[in-house]
Amino acid sequence: MSEVQSETAGVSEERDVTELVLQDILTGMLPAGTWLKQIDLERRYDCTRPEVRRALDRLSQKRLVAHVPNRGYHVYQPDDRRAKEVGDIRIILETAMADMMVANVTTDSIAALRGLARYFDEMTLTGTILEHYEANLAFHRELLLLGGNQELVDLVSEIRQRTSSAPVSQWRTRARIEKSGREHHMMIDALAARDVEELKRLIAVHIRQPADIPKQV
Amino acid sequence: MSEVQSETAGVSEERDVTELVLQDILTGMLPAGTWLKQIDLERRYDCTRPEVRRALDRLSQKRLVAHVPNRGYHVYQPDDRRAKEVGDIRIILETAMADMMVANVTTDSIAALRGLARYFDEMTLTGTILEHYEANLAFHRELLLLGGNQELVDLVSEIRQRTSSAPVSQWRTRARIEKSGREHHMMIDALAARDVEELKRLIAVHIRQPADIPKQV
DNA sequence: GTTACCAATATTGGCGCCAATTTATGATAC
DNA sequence: GTATCATAAATTGGCGCCAATATTGGTAAC
């Protein structure tokens, strides 16, 4: 009864292995193409074999890792065509919500968004990759929530993961990250000004991540 | 060695249990709210415990069944709000593709669609619920394929399953089904006429499934 | 020196058992 | 007669073992 639940990081032990592997893929700690040997994961996350297997199965359902029968699982190699298509889908969904967002916006939600945008900027400087990634997610989640379609919010979060498995290539330059931060604030401005068309334009540009990425030869 | 593999449906034995459970949910053979006891499924599909568990885990990831720890899994109770939201998402995605569809349409694709629409009509009369469901899926898949976004096709197929778990309520009346069949052909007509706006309107109406369903009191 | 084949090792993946928890049933007390 | 508690049955879910398969390294032959 009076048993201590955990020492310090007890909660993290409790957490699902799937989440841990997912995070390591998203942060680039497990690069694309890496073979995920069950024994390695077992030791890495200090968990049992069935837990590892369930995590791998779930991630392969989400198409984040690929499964080759009798060979194992490896991190999905990002595909240019797929990345573009997922980007297009996100633009369709998120710009379609722009009207609703403007209709539902309040001073409170503006304030909340501004706070999340600032938090993102902070994390750019002081946070870990994961914190930064999640700050970005939180902002876009809050923004989309204004659309009033909960299912759509979840869906976008979901498909977001499908190509962000290439965090290195997309978030490489500091210039790009800082541009993202500015774009967040510009979106809030457009929202406050009730300018639907400008908001749509900004969302599309933001998702497309225009090719200012220096082609490393 | 000369052992007979199976009596008749030998191939179906080889198939994934997840698919089988999914089909039974979709066809209404396992109604919403049903508790899916592992032993029952084990016997029903003649498979092992781990197979059942993996199937249940996958389906709960897809939000088709709900998991209550230490209590088991049960078929998801369809939620009106969610159903509406998923419908809205489908309308956004599928109407957004209308321009591309019209741009990419050929006489061959018209012919293929016409064939699938006719096949759907046939299945209305002679097919099983599953065949009918799949004929419908095949038509919409082929239609969406014209949009040129493979990821979007898969995504729609996926989210389609999220609410079609209430097949009874949506496909109840024969009148509604026949109306669906006619709408398919009207979509093809609009496509052949390169009429984007009409196509969008038809898609929206078709997905929305206007309330001609007799409210059973 | 190189290539092909075979053996040893490592990894995957299927299967079943047992502990923990929950639910149903029956008995007893009020 | 009803409510409550205890005991028994059933169900879930965690864990580990073992067979099947792929990979790697070594050896021998050309």
Description:
2 copies of one chain form a homodimer. With 217 residues, chain A is mainly alpha-helical. Chain A has helices spanning 10-14, 17-26, 38-44, 49-61, 80-96, 98-104, 107-126, 129-145, 150-163, 167-170, 174-192, 196-208, and strands at residues 35-36, 65-68, 72-75. Chain A contains 12 helices and 3 strands. In chain A, strand 2 and strand 3 (72-75) form a beta hairpin. The longest helix of chain A has 20 residues, at 107-126. The termini of chain A are far apart. The interface between A and B is medium-sized, with 21 and 21 residues. The first copy, chain A, binds a DNA duplex (30 and 30 nucleotides) through residues 37-39, 48-51, 53, 69-72.
Averaging pLDDT over every residue of chain A, what do you get?
86
For this entry, what is the oligomeric state of its chains?
homodimer
Query: Widest sheet of chain A: strand order?
Result: 1-3-2
Unreliably modeled segments of chain A = 1-14, 211-217
Number of strand segments of chain A: 3
Give the SSE order of chain A as H and E letters.
Answer: HHEHHEEHHHHHHHH
Cα radius of gyration of chain A in angstroms:
19 Å
**Major sheet description of chain A:** 3 strands, antiparallel
Q: What fraction of residues of chain A sit in β-strands?
A: under 5%
Helix fraction bin of chain A: 55-70%
- Coarse morphology of chain A: elongated
Instruction: State the helix count of chain A.
Output: 12
How far is the N terminus from the C terminus of chain A?
62 Å
Largest interface, by Cβ-Cβ below 8 angstroms: which chains and how many residues each?
A-B, 21 and 21 residues
Structural class of chain A: mainly alpha
